[in-house]
Design a protein that fits this description.
Strand content: 15-25%
Order of helices and strands: EHHEHEHEHEHEHHEHEHH
Number of helices: 11
Bound molecules: pyridoxine-5'-phosphate
Largest sheet: 8 strands, parallel, barrel
CATH topology: TIM Barrel
Radius of gyration: 17 Å
CATH class: Alpha Beta
Number of strands: 8
CATH architecture: Alpha-Beta Barrel
Strand order of the largest sheet: 1-2-3-4-5-6-7-8
Structural class: alpha/beta
């Protein structure tokens, strides 16, 4: 019998800050959104402090850490400046992601093979500080093996290519990407890595991806905040939690 453990939903509140920053004031407040998301069923809050501070700012991270009762997942590029900030905020977890100034969102996984030597001290230092490190990677065997060699306990599989193929109606490519994710999730578990997934997920794709028993956490932002415009943030989070629970119940035997 396959073991299907507790599945966690991490709500990414970056785009509440995007809307706030469009006017330069204090509203809408991402901390208020985080508290509401937790009340509605989120198991943790994710926020990405980008080098250009286009949405979340340093002060948001500190306020989130102070205010929330659930784990804070600090997404960041592996830079000295971000490492200093993360160590001072002391979040529950850090997810290391690649970052390009010109991208609209995190476009691909971290180059853990090519960037191995560069990344190693970041993983080590965060780990020594008691922060759970995850690496945002493409669903590829070499990336998973490099994650183990780097000493990271967690990987987050980039679901963007799969979600994009579904959105654009490319069924064959979508199926291929889905199988690539399935293979990677299995390999992650066999290597002893905790496996998360995220990027571009909506109700339908979240419902499907939780069919992989190895996945224990999804991190979802843009869709949930967009949906909140129509149904409210609490309902958006509640419906996502329901989709995840239904998806897992459908395959748990
Ligand atoms: N996980 C990681 C590592 C990310 O970088 C992002 C995007 O910031 C997400 C999950 C969430 O993606 P989305 O906003 O498309 O749901």
């Amino acid at each position: 019998m396959t073991h299907y453990g507790k599945l966690r939903l991490g709500v990414n509140i970056d785009h509440v800050a995007t809307v706030r920053n469009a006017r330069g004031g204090a509203r809408p407040d991402p901390v208020r959104a985080a508290l509401l998301a937790i009340e509605a069923g989120a198991d943790g809050i994710t926020a990405h402090l980008r080098e250009d501070r286009r949405h979340i700012r340093d002060e948001d991270m500190r306020r989130l850490k102070e205010a929330i009762s659930k784990p804070l997942n600090f997404e960041m590029a592996a830079t000295e400046q971000m490492l200093d900030i993360a160590l001072s905020v002391a979040p529950h977890a850090c997810c290391l992601v690649p970052e390009k100034r010109t991208e609209r969102t995190t476009e691909g996984g971290l180059d853990v093979v090519g960037g191995f030597a560069y990344l190693k001290p970041f993983v080590a230092e965060l780990g020594r500080a008691g922060v759970r490190v995850s690496l945002f990677i493409e669903p590829e065997a070499e990336a998973l093996e490099a994650a183990v060699a780097l000493g990271a306990p967690v990987v987050e599989l980039h679901t963007g290519a799969w979600c994009h193929a579904i959105e654009t109606g490319e069924a064959a490519r979508g199926q291929g990407e889905f199988e690539r994710l399935r293979t990677a999730a299995r390999k992650a578990a066999s290597l002893g890595l905790e496996c998360h997934a995220g990027h571009g997920l909506d109700f339908d794709t979240a419902r499907l991806i939780v069919g992989f028993p190895e996945i224990v956490e999804l991190n979802i932002g843009h869709f949930l905040i967009g949906e909140a415009i129509f149904v409210g943030l609490a309902e958006s989070v509640r419906l996502m939690r329901k989709a995840m629970d239904e998806g897992r119940a459908a395959v748990a035997v």
